[in-house]
Amino acid sequence: MADPDEHSAFHACAVKWAIDKFVSGVTAAQYAREALGFSVSGQAWSHRYVKMMYREEAHQLAILRDICANPFRPVTIDPGWLTPTVTSLATAAYTERILPSGELDPARLTVLADALEEVGWQDADILGHLRSPGPHVRGCWALDLLLEKE
Question: Where are the domains of the chain?
């Protein structure tokens, strides 16, 4: 089994790489095409290949949105909302993933959103994010916020 610290370091590196590529305006799929020496103007790409690349880019952007919160709408936590029920549901959602993909279970996140509403949470951004179909991965900004992870 992999060392948890090694996994965290890899995750942090992967997140930084994804953010760097996102900020520079180059998606990972575009980067891969460039690395393989493809150029749109010089290649007669098949319709199927282009569809596959767009699907991959959309998936990568969805994961990036799951990891990075909107920097223009910061969310703060009232410690009173972090009840034992909310904390245990958040911990379970973080540790119990769907295998083999490793994604977080959307059903658990929906239950967590319901528990947050019961304690008075009104922030539509975090509730909407937790109830969205995802994909949700470890590093999900809403879950990390609730678990007070950096």
Answer: 4-67, 79-146
